[in-house]
Amino acid sequence: MRIFIALIITLIISIGCSSLKLSPAEFDWPVESVQKIDNEGFVKEDRYSFSFNSKALFLEEMQDSMAYKGKDLRIIRNKDGYYFITTKGFKNVYIFQQGEASLELKEKLLVNENGLNNPFFNQRNPFVELVDGDIKVFLTSEGLQGGAK
Fold this sequence. Notes:
Blueprint: H1 2-16, E1 33-36, E2 42-45, E3 50-53, H2 55-62, E4 72-77, E5 83-86, E6 92-99, E7 102-110, E8 120-124, E9 127-132, E10 135-140, E11 143-148
Antiparallel strand pairs: 1-4, 2-3, 4-5, 5-6, 6-7, 8-9, 9-10, 10-11
Protein name: Lipoprotein
């Protein structure tokens, strides 16, 4: 009898712990989002219900957490849910994944030693394309996939 009860309890627990997976799912934004940074360093994208504080990003890139003032960020999300972020003057593209109430850095990709002049992103599945003048590179969550530097 005890074995039967233990078996029933195990069965109930295992059924209750099964996970639900909905796939395939795509998370890409069809076009990049260009967002102004507010006076407190926050970026807010209402269309996608998305916001974050950008100060740590500017500290990482420019060694100045106040360098965000008067700037905007170029942001796009690929089909796998990774966020690609850069702006004028940055040397790098930052790739973030969603964490618990945070964005966590996955990759930091050097694109132009001299800094980007007028960057913009395009969705080119399976890639995210970064264009800045004559520079055109294809990006994935793993890094650069080709193009001229």
